[in-house]
Amino acid sequence: MNPALEDEDASGPLDRTSLADRILPFIAQHRMATTAQVQQVLLPTNRPHVSRNLNQLERRQLVEHIVLPRSNRTRAWYLTAEGARLTQSLPELQGRPPYPVTSATAASLRTAHTLAAVRAHAAFVCDARRRGDEHGPFDWTPEVAHNLGDGDRLIADALMHYTLARADGGRTKLRALIEVDRSTMSSERMASKLIEYARFHLYQPAPAGRRKPAPGLEGPMWKRWYPVFPRVLFVLTGAGRRTLANRTADLRSMAEVHPGVAELARHVPLGAAVLEDLEEHGPTAALWTPLTGEAEPRPWNDL
Q1: CB within 8 A of 127, min separation 6: which ones?
Q2: Quick one: three-class SS letters along 42-56?
Q3: Which among 149, 161, 234, 265 could bridge 139 via Cys, Cβ 3.0 to 4.6 Å?
Q4: Which of left, alpha, beta for 209 (phi over 0: left; psi -120 to 50: alpha)?
Q5: Helix, strand, coil content of the chain in percent (nearest 5)
Q6: With contact defined as beta carbons under 8 Å apart, do 159 and 175 qualify?
Q7: One-character DSSP codes across 134-198
Q8: 130: burial class by Cβ within 10 Å (0-12, 13-18, 19+)?
Q9: Element (H or E) spanning 63, and its range?
Q10: How far apart are CA 95 and CA 83, in angstroms?
Q11: How many CA atoms does the CB half-sphere of 19 hold within 13 Å?
């Protein structure tokens, strides 16, 4: 252990080789995570080390925790204001919205959705580790916003970067915009999120004055951010199997009946899967229902 970390009052620059100081940016990335989630992503083989380091960070007043209700006293950790200060300039957090959870009240309000999104991320990390793919703690950026014009914004629950290791020794880089649905909103409202993605796929801002866009910036706005429009993946949880199947069917219906979404689906892979299945079998199992065409489930990278 780095000697600085044994000093409970230490609050200087982070030591990027220590577990304790790798935990801080991971919590900053997601705003909140349970002990088990930190372990899954950062140190899957040694739970005592994770718990000890979280307790140490709490003594240093860099993190605090709440106890989740009806959870056998599961702790969910978030940064203090000082922890947020220490992590705000880290390279892996650049582009992250600068509003961390830094109080028990704020943590309680965001707990369910935030932790469901971390569960989805952990499922991809564990699967990538098992397969030999590349997808680490900071290849997942929560709450990514894009302009849609007229003052509207598309806010995806996460942007995922993932590199597949191919059998021929090559690599395939993939991106996906993730929507985590806990069945707390109506199915129609959930499915209408696809319309926002269709708008983003087509949105082209008017050039300022009479100037033409700079070379390479012509066309839809998304090309300024991505070489290829990312897959759109819905991760469903929070209800029984029949309800989740109905919500998947409503997503497929939206992709069929809405002209803009149907056009999006001709160019962009769209799919939905159940979070608990991803955790049990891994996201590269044949679990994802395509939102157009045959409904036979397949791996997310095969949509």
Answers
A1: 133, 135, 278, 282, 283, 284
A2: HCCCCHHHHHHHHHH
A3: 161
A4: left
A5: 45, 20, 35
A6: yes
A7: B--TTSEEEEEEEEEETTEEEEEEEEEEEEEE-TTS-EEEEEEEEEEE-S-S-HHHHHTHHHHHH
A8: exposed
A9: strand 63-67
A10: 18
A11: 19
Q: Kind and range of the H or E element at 290?
A: strand 289-290
Question: In this predicted model, which residue has the larger pLDDT, 82 or 275?
Answer: 275
pLDDT averaged over every residue in the chain:
86
Closest alpha carbon to 56 in 20, 105, 96: 20
The 3-class secondary structure across 12-32, one letter per residue, is: CCCCCCCHHHHHHHHHHHHCC
Q: Which amino acid is at 251?
A: L
160 φ, ψ to 5°? -110, 135
Q: Sort strands 289-290 and 270-274 into parallel, antiparallel or unpaired.
A: antiparallel
* 57-69 pLDDT per residue, tens: 999 999 999 898 8
Count of beta carbons in the 10 Å neighbourhood of residue 112 = 14
To 5 degrees, how large is the angle CA 251–CA 254–CA 258? 160
pLDDT by residue (tens digit) across 241-265? 999 999 999 999 999 999 999 999 9
